[in-house]
């Protein structure tokens, strides 16, 4: 059934396959009067775009986004915004050899079983290319959040393979193709990627998303909790296998007296909670981590079956990233921005104008 | 805005505060003709119920669930099922001392800021007591999944503090109050809990949920993915700070050639993916892990502020679990069962009767 | 699938059958801080309640509503509000004779075909008794609309059989058991009802709902239009077969030059549109009409089939209204109030704080 | 907030303004394996298209629809279907004179008040041109309904001004530009339209939609009733002011003994109910009527105000239909088809495979 939408008040619905005519999405529920241009979206699309550095795939996808509706004289009208990116560099030939077999670690098998009839070109709908539209939609959310509330949603690479990154210098993040916040780790990352390319293999990664200036009070108490919606949004990114809020899995071995963030008149003393208590934002930085698996698009031969159930070999030729985690940085930002946007508008629906003791959003 | 529902085709909406008159929920979308009785639900409610062992809180909540509608002559009618549990052992006096102050690590502060007006008795809506209704609703889903598809959703304690549990003997799980699948770890767990009680402190935990016999094909490809919905459902449980599917955070340091699950005519060779590929179930066991924080309801004094912003001390008296993770076992099962139920019905909506090459659900 | 909810931001979900233990509903999304008591709801419940005059059924249903959650110290908390009404005067014996046959004009046949297994006692879920919960939920919406925006939603009987009512004196409406706004028609209505009782037959009715002080700007432009949502809400009331907004079916023979409501600096010159243009409220009174069929619960014998497909006679004994339209007055008000409440909160979500040229809600 | 979608399991979301770059929509939830081509959609688009006869506007809009995704090798894949129609004949000059004033009877005023910032070119989002995408999406639903269930959804003109049409000859409907099922009324309709053109005025219309072969059991019992969803869908069409199911407003003066449709072993004896009982399809023809107002796009001068609140005159130049009701025929069919499609898939979700006494869908 329908399953290509995220958000309730601010809702993004996407369409498009890797090698179809175009990708597109509808952004529904954006407030009117927001100044926005295609260039605002292009910045993040370019950050996600492959072919921009030697560390990512050399496919060239210009990813030029176009507004088809919802923006008039440079401002949103409040009606639904239609966006498209035409697919130009499709080269479906590269994929023809795997049309009849299921690449292990990919969605080929599950799509085939679910739908019977699938677009096998480049992964079709399961291709990471679909995330371009999430980034485009997220850029609209990011602009609104920044302009109206001063909220910034940013992401960085916090680990790749065994290269852990602990020092966070935000100024560094956009200075290198790894979105790495620690300059001293760039060489290790470079070496790791070069070794993987030689081997034809790939590696996983961990990303950290931080949203600051988020007002207190976002999130519903039981089911549409802010942490649950962030987990949903991040786990929904291709290749993600784990999501943490705040201290995440470290809490297993923490004591209550250590984990709880004490309050003082000046604010919280710590942020083990990652900015969310009882599913509701606390006014602290929202901090989330995500783990991305190593892509299965590798040249190391693997065993699989074809549509007739026979054993066959598979090698994914073509141009692929050794670490898809890198390019997920703008996607993770976009997803968290979409969730925050939705919750901000939701919060405003319920609370504005009713009680006066709470700071208004 | 509305935020107390989970599911789209099979939808559960809950209400009720810890110390109000009653908890309740509406289960909407259950197929007609399912044989069900209150006793079917009581089994899981009793597994969640506090006061059943010396390791959990000594509050006694009989948690007797009652069908108010939707079941006629022992079978579901297909219309909405109303459920209630009356609150009997309320003792609101215990909580009166913390009405004006925000317990660190609890949702007191965020509720106060969000709503202005909050029910402070026992955490009100943020109390884990609310999860009783999730367990009740989940029991209906579990019965349907088991009966119609042979699906079982089970959960066990996989870590508490530094006590890790690797051996999984399902027969053990229900034999001890920890839901621990390894008999050899029971003594260590017992010691840990006793030490914490003495200290008045608490500890985190890790749980593992496994669903077997899940048909291939459940989950939508982009946003309503099965993994994303499981992440949403589990992160929405009180105290959860992290969720993993399959290998989870271990993927960060895996190679693609190692992570991908190869296929043979007999099936997959491994299950690093945790039974989900591209957001869609693969027919393997669904495996998910969750991390639960140590409860902040401890007697170790902490620093906080009151509603006037002044520094005050806080000690949570009352009867609390040193490890809330234990009682989350049936809750985690219920949440995953609700998600699977919703996706099974969704899948049936879209796919039945159209293409014939795919195994029908 | 799930289908017992109305509204998106302010959402009402109901449960309960005519002769089950209780009726209930969850009102989710109500802003916090609204002063509300059970007595506020009882007023409308009593207006809907049967047995209050000789013109309606003599069944006695005290319909005492109880808050189970969501209200604390006399004010809404912002969390989900649980409501129940226990069924006391059930007398299921009255209905036992029709358990195996399908009353013509009732939902017996369609429920049986849809669900296979149905609660036949008093119509089960299809009973008009279910609307008590809509009235209770609507009363919460009405109180909020009145208090925060001065909006009033009122309804009157505008026709019964061939007795048309053109004069609208709002002060009269609550003075007589017909909700008739024209005192001079009371005698004709009384005669009609008495004649029907003698014949054991029933009659249809037309109601008119008016909402005033509705701010301009409510409603979404394409699908969640205010007029479409009102049509949905009113057509969803038992027995309703037609809905009009503004001039309704009269527009078929109107000219454009006659229908369009011209604007002057003082406001609109007329209100043919019924307060809605392009799906969005214009700031004028919202005016809608609805047509209710004559109930099929009559003593005039009718022909039908039983569950085995054999021809049988049916007479609906029991205590029934000759004109169910009368009691639908508070239901129609409730439904329109729920729709307006939802749209007010929705509007606030999208628009508040963004553009400054538009009057704020 | 988000408000450009219809349907839950089969969901259509549209975007696009009258004079923007393109119109588009996403059809989400269509089952896989349905053979479909752009030509299948074009048939209905051409029926809706202006400029095809002398009775409708002479604007020429080729309305060529293009699949951007979701269809592969001539069959739906089960993923979201992206559709666009580029706007070619825009002529925004025609509308420039009315940019600063509110055309009476149009949505100019309400859009301005709601959004502050509106696309005034040709009505922007409120233009009937938006309905092209509903027709395109509806054509997909129609094809599926026809192919899988033999369901046909058809519509005809049942009244225009004072020309009533009682004889229904389905073979006639597509033979004349009025979609009139009675050949003997063509001359009267021709005269009426010619008179209106001379006067520069417009007229309302009544349409009747009939769906046959609809299985019994579609529709949810309380809120997502089939009749309520049809009312929502039809009232949501531009210019519609009234909707009836079955006998509609005639029920006001019917007796219960006359209205109820008696059952015999061979089926129902009559169809006053219009194929829906208790919100659920009865297996009879679904019959609904809708009333469309006369368009306000006329050359008869009218009084209005401009954005500064000053009195001004307004004349709608340009190329407009004297009776917009005519072109709404394929739109009404599309909307009912979308509703039926959604309910068929919903019904399948809940009911398949559970109880065996009910005919399966």
TrEMBL record, chains A, B, C, D:
The keyword rRNA processing does not apply. Belongs to the chorismate synthase family. It comes from the Bacteria. FMN binds at residues 125-127, 238-239, 278, 293-297, 319. Its EC number is 4.2.3.5. It is an enzyme of class 4 (lyase). Reduced FMN (FMNH(2)). InterPro entries: Chorismate_synth, Chorismate_synth_AroC_sf, Chorismate_synthase_CS. It catalyses: 5-O-(1-carboxyvinyl)-3-phosphoshikimate = chorismate + phosphate. GO terms for molecular function: chorismate synthase activity. NADP(+) binds at residues 48, 54. Keywords: Amino-acid biosynthesis, Aromatic amino acid biosynthesis, FAD, Flavoprotein, FMN, Lyase, NADP. This is Chorismate synthase. CDD domains: Chorismate_synthase. Its cofactor is FMNH2. Homotetramer. Pathway: Metabolic intermediate biosynthesis; chorismate biosynthesis; chorismate from D-erythrose 4-phosphate and phosphoenolpyruvate: step 7/7. This reaction introduces a second double bond into the aromatic ring system.
